[in-house]
Design a protein that fits this description.
Blueprint (H helix, E strand, L loop, with lengths): L3 E6 L4 H14 L5 E9 L13 H18 L7 E9 L2 H12 L3 E7 L3 H6 L2 H8 L3 E7 L5
Parallel strand pairs: 1-2, 1-4, 2-3, 4-5
């Protein structure tokens, strides 16, 4: 069905990453499908939250995240080309920008069950669904599943 798939990842939830990978593989059809794994580092969104986080630490975090992404989905079918992408900034903005740049056919991402806070601020998944240039598959997980 899809040849250009973007999968935003939260590396703190390994089980979800594997599940998203399986779903993305099932959506890929034909030969030479591209699977783009995206990690968005939000450390610098609000510098006040972590003022000691310097550029060296940021670069180390970037390298660790890329290495972790490459190792997570090592058993993929041969028809799937995997690339890893690391971005910094607000998650929803970076997901949408990356989807536009890649001309993604579909975005596959996790979302938590909505709580009271999401009614006031909204969620990354909600913003992505609203503004995405392509189809978006949301895999729903409750709080206890994360």
């Amino acid at each position: 069905m899809y040849k250009n798939i973007l999968v935003p990842l939260d590396l703190s939830h390994k089980a979800q990453v594997v599940e998203l990978g399986k779903i993305a593989v099932s959506l890929a059809t034909g030969e030479n499908a591209d699977l783009h794994l995206l990690y968005v580092d939000q450390s610098f969104v609000h510098r006040a939250g972590n003022p000691q986080f310097d550029e060296r630490a940021h670069e180390g975090h970037r390298k660790d995240a890329l290495k972790e992404m490459e190792g997570l989905l090592s058993e993929l079918p041969e028809n799937l080309r995997v690339s890893t992408i690391y971005r910094s900034g607000p998650a929803h903005d970076q997901i949408l920008e990356t989807a536009n740049q890649l001309k993604a056919d579909v975005i596959v991402m996790m979302a938590r069950k909505p709580g009271i806070s999401s009614y006031f601020i909204g969620s990354n998944a909600e913003r992505v669904v609203r503004h995405a240039p392509c189809s978006v598959f949301i895999v729903r997980r409750g709080e206890s599943d994360s």
